[in-house]
# Entry
Amino acid sequence: MGFLNKLFGKGTEESDWVQLESEDSVEEVFKASGTRIQLILKHSQSCAVSFFAKQNLDSVPLEEWPEMDRTMVEVVRFRPISQYIAKKTFVRHESPQILVILKGEVIFHTSHSEVNKVNIQQAYKKALTML
# Structure
């Protein structure tokens, strides 16, 4: 998707997203969800829908969702981790896909064109009432 990055820019820094590359890193997300809202993005670098979904999320400054951590798994490169998340959450894998996790539970998930900042903002507001 290099041509899309050149055309539209990369958005926020990749370092704004914590990359999930092991089952242990997924477990850390669930542990952290006890006190902070966790967002997991399942992302495919070879999918245009996924590219535009991530661009949409990257347009939201970190300060807008201060109580939420952003994590991401690259579903092609780390397929076993993506499958681990699906098994752990009982949410069928799709890409792109977001899961909002609080207190060890998925409180919101959606996929494809529904992966956008409007839906995440609604889930974020809901999660804030549950903290």
About this structure: The CA atoms of residues 53 and 115 lie 6 Å apart.
